[in-house]
Specification:
It is built from 27 helices and ten strands. With 607 residues, it is of the alpha/beta class. Strands 3-2-1-4 form a four-stranded mixed beta sheet, with no helix packed on it. The protein has a four-stranded mixed beta sheet with strand order 7-8-9-10. Strands 5-6 form a two-stranded antiparallel ribbon.
Length: 607
């Protein structure tokens, strides 16, 4: 077993051997496997073809020398350092090496005079390049003085270089370096200003433009991998001067996350109970995507101009404060906020309208798009600006976009949200009408509404409403509803009505027609709950119930209220029929006047 584990350690090493032993259910860790390895015996004579090169025990500090049998592909020995004396001593102790393939280290050069073909060619190339570089003025002067008139002139077409982002970046950097060199800038100052290494600046200074472009064209030309599906997006971000790998890594999840959010919303709408799909969501989503892109690019541009660890948090805090100060609320009938309406609409964060039939106007979409495009253009300009003047000029797009946006955005809050006329178009069946948004509710509401109108006519006679209509009036939070004697207003935001069906729907319509609640009753407004006892009494009376039927189940907080309502029901049903009808009529009149209708049913003075 020990020999078998040793063979595993020799062939696979520590971690791979540990995984193999785990698969075979053999308890052997990598430390045990490596402990079984023994250094091979060093042969007395060197191999015929000996390879010599250095390696690092600790990079930058301690180095050693590895000796390899080139023909067998096996390590012969390890020397503790890379000095020429240690290597020469080893050669004297192990003779018979005919060919030695060495690296270019100085110690190996002093130890032996032979080198392999690759190192020889590299040494020759470096020597020729160094010599030509030292005599460039002489070579250029001699080339200019040569007689070229006798040579035939051949018109060759200009080579077509692909304008890839990497090539353009190399060209722009080369141009910027030479522009600053012409201004007598030092190499260190150019490196700090352009955020380049001094070696790169020195290389751009001494080499023609063709060499950086050729290197950029050759870089990664034959490499393909998992990043290939994302190359179109990455190229577009490179074109937009988003050249940092960290920035690109942040941009990809940002774009994908927003796309998934929109896709999930679309799936919910498609699979949900919605039967009306307007196109108003499209400009809203496009403006949101533009805001996301503009904010990201502008933030990167500001971070490039102000390279500090404090820039991202301070910029985030500034954006949050501006959004909070510019945000409008829709608690009132019209949007309201601290800032003027035009200035507030520069923020794409708008409050959701309470009314289902409201949507943002086209002027808001256009104005916000102009402002965000200016912000995006400024961010791109800041990413590419290299001088203070260029950075100042980069502010022009955002200022122009803000000016145009302020001219386009509506000055009045009433014009920010408009009624979606297509969604609010009436759809009727007999005397029952709803909006286009709730067309699907009409099939059940129409027969129940006709039955409710018949019962209301029997109870109120000529004073009874003659139509049932969905409520579409705009109002503020807790503002009274605009009631009409001839209409039964239906609000699908009423939690009781939204989920009612069958006889319960008929009961609610009768209650709304006899004693309509003046205060709204929605998920965010509860004033209409005060009218539930009177509505329950009136509906039970009109439907001819023998027992009191509350519209809402009693809980611990409303048990006393429903007990009093049941007592009032008992007193009402004990009266003669004429008096009952009279009290129902007085309760109907009180409700239309936005007064409490319960005292009219009990015979007390109405408040």
């Amino acid at each position: 077993m020990k020999q078998w584990l040793k063979d595993v350690a020799v062939e696979l090493g520590g971690r791979a051997g540990e995984r193999m032993c785990r698969k075979l259910s053999i308890p052997a860790g990598r430390t045990r496997l490596l402990g079984l390895l023994e250094a091979p015996e060093v042969p007395d004579r060197a191999p015929r073809v000996l390879g010599v090169d250095e390696f690092a025990f600790r990079r930058g500090r301690t180095y050693g020398t590895v000796l390899v049998n080139v023909e067998m592909g096996r390590v012969v020995d390890i020397l503790p350092d890379r000095t020429s004396e240690t290597f020469a001593t080893w050669l004297r102790e192990h003779p018979s090496a005919e060919i030695i393939c060495r690296g270019r280290a100085t110690a190996y050069t002093r130890g032996i005079k032979e080198a392999d073909r690759w190192h020889l060619l590299q040494n020759l190339s470096a020597a020729v390049e160094k010599t030509c570089h030292q005599h460039r003025p002489c070579l250029r002067k001699h080339a200019e003085q040569e007689e070229t008139s006798a040579l035939p002139v051949i018109d060759l077409p200009m080579p077509h270089l692909p304008r890839t982002p990497i090539v353009e970046r190399a060209r722009d950097r080369y141009t910027d370096v030479h522009r600053l060199l012409d201004r007598k800038w030092a190499i260190s100052a150019i490196a700090r200003h352009l955020r380049l290494d001094r070696k790169t600046v020195r290389e751009f200074k001494t080499t023609p433009l063709d060499e950086p472009i050729a290197s950029a064209m050759d870089f990664g030309a034959s490499r393909r991998g998992l990043i290939d599906p994302f190359k179109p997006y990455l190229n577009s971000r490179f074109t937009a001067s988003c050249t940092s790998a960290q920035q690109l890594f942040r941009c990809l999840p940002l774009a994908v996350a927003f796309g998934l959010l929109v896709l999930w919303g679309a799936v919910q709408v498609a699979l949900g109970s919605a039967t009306y799909l307007p196109f108003g969501w499209l400009p809203i989503s496009l403006v949101a995507a533009l805001a996301l892109a503009a904010a990201a690019v502008f933030g990167m541009g500001v971070a490039r101009v102000l390279p500090s660890v404090l820039t991202p948090p301070l910029l985030t805090i500034a954006v949050l404060l501006s959004v909070m100060l510019l945000r409008q609320t829709t608690d009132s009938a019209l949007p309201a906020g601290i800032a003027p309406n035009r200035l507030a609409l520069l923020s794409p964060v708008t409050d959701m309208p309470r009314q289902l039939l409201l949507t943002l106007s086209g002027a808001v979409h256009l104005g916000q798009s102009l402002w965000l495009l200016g912000l995006l253009a400024t961010g791109l300009a800041l990413l590419t600006a290299a001088t203070r003047r260029a950075r100042l000029l980069a502010l022009a797009p955002v200022l122009a976009g803000a000016a145009l946006a302020l001219l386009v955005l509506p000055a009045s809050a009433r014009d920010s949200f408009v009624l979606d006329r297509a969604a609010a178009a009436p759809v009727c069946s007999g005397q029952v009408c709803v909006t286009e948004v709730h067309r699907s509710r009409l099939a059940e509401l129409a027969p129940r509404g006709a039955e409710a109108l018949r019962l209301l006519h029997e109870a109120l006679g000529d004073q009874a409403p003659t139509r049932i209509q969905e409520e579409t009036d705009l109002r503020a939070i807790s503002e009274d509803r605009r009631l009409s004697p001839g209409l039964v207003l239906v609000d699908f935001n009423d939690p009781l009505l939204a989920h009612a069906s069958g006889p319960d729907l008929t009961r609610l319509l009768v209650a709304q027609g006899l004693t309509p609640n003046c205060g709204p009753r929605t998920i965010w407004e509860g004033a209409g709950l005060l009218d539930l006892p009177a509505q329950s009494i009136a509906a039970s009376w009109a439907l001819g119930d023998h027992r009191f039927h509350p519209l809402e189940a009693a809980d611990a907080y409303s048990r006393d209220t429903w007990t009093k309502a049941e007592t009032a029901w008992t007193r009402l049903t004990a009266l003669p029929p004429a008096e009952q009808r009279s009290r129902i009529a007085r309760a109907h009149t009180a409700a239309l006047d936005c007064r409490n209708s319960l005292p009219a049913l009990t015979g007390e003075a109405s408040a």
